[in-house]
Amino acid sequence: MKLLVFIFLFSCHLFANVYQLSTIVDEQQLVPVIKINGKVVIEIKEVGTKQVFSSPFERSEKIFKTLKELGTQASNLNRIRIRRSPNKADYIAYVDNIELYRVTPSDVVGSELSVYQMAKLWRDNIKTAVKTMTPMDERALSEESLVDDAIPLIGFLSLFSSNSFFVMAIQFSLFVLIQMAAILFTFNFLNRRNKHVFDEFHNRLKKFHHKQIQQNNLLTAMETQIEDLVNQLPDNGRNNISNIK
Question: Kind and range of the H or E element at 88?
Fold first, then answer.
């Protein structure tokens, strides 16, 4: 028990910033939100660029994944820069050359902010949530977020319950079964073919042996007939035949 508590506290200390992807209800609709250390930093109400994302949830998941990867080093999130996109309508947040998020005109509908101000607000929220992290904030986080995000072992084990893992396992099993079936089919085919060749060779060998026996019998019969004929000849004829031999 003490060991588990030690691992838990060590993990909380090591992974200071806790990232969450959850939802809130806004005007009777579910809105995906991204939190850092329990504070909402980004609300994704719109799909943004329609050519890229099919829903706000897909968009929020992409931003969350990038944010979490960059957040492995707190200094990265302090280097967020806002740039205007080539189409002059969107504003993009970069860390070095990595795009973190993109704010489009659809994100400011119903608000009094401009696209640039919204992009800057998200950036300021991220920096504030990272800077104001304290031990009290860590203890105030929900138990679920601590288990999911602070302890890396739990995240690793969760892979074994994900749909993608089972799909990959099924595909791998099918691949192995197909390979085994192909090997068995090839083995049986070659075995039958070799057996057929062996049987044919054995039959030919038996025929050849049978012909040899027939020829030996024929030669023996001819020799017997010759000896009978020789015995029937007079003595002079036998001598002549002996001279011929």
Answer: none
Quick one: tokens of 112? 């009094």
Backbone phi, psi, residue 25, to 5°? -100, 120
What gap in Å lies between CA 119 and CA 208, rounded to an integer?
A: 95
As a whole number of angstroms, the distance between CA 225 and CA 132 comes to 124
Contacts (Cβ under 8 Å, ≥6 apart) of 152: 11, 15
Q: Which residues pair with 81 in a beta bridge?
A: 94
pTM of the complete model beyond 0.70: no
Q: How far apart are CA 245 and CA 239, in angstroms?
A: 10
Average pLDDT estimate for 6-11: 47
Strand pairing partners for 20? 35
Taking the C-alpha atoms of residue 70 and residue 98, their distance in angstroms, rounded to an integer, is 9
User: What pLDDT is recorded for position 225?
Assistant: 86
Tokens 């031990």 map to which residue?
135
Most trustworthy range by pLDDT among 25-29, 93-97, 117-121, 198-202: 117-121
Which residues lie closer than 8 Å to 120 by C-beta, 6 or more apart?
A: 82
Cα 167–Cα 165–Cα 148 angle in degrees, nearest 5: 145
Residue at 38: amino acid letter = G
Rounded to the nearest 10 degrees, how much is the dihedral formed by the CA atoms of 48, 53, 58, 64? -60
pLDDT of residue 76: 80
The C-alpha atoms of residue 35 and residue 148 are separated, in whole angstroms, by 13
CA separation for the pair 144, 210 (Å, rounded): 88
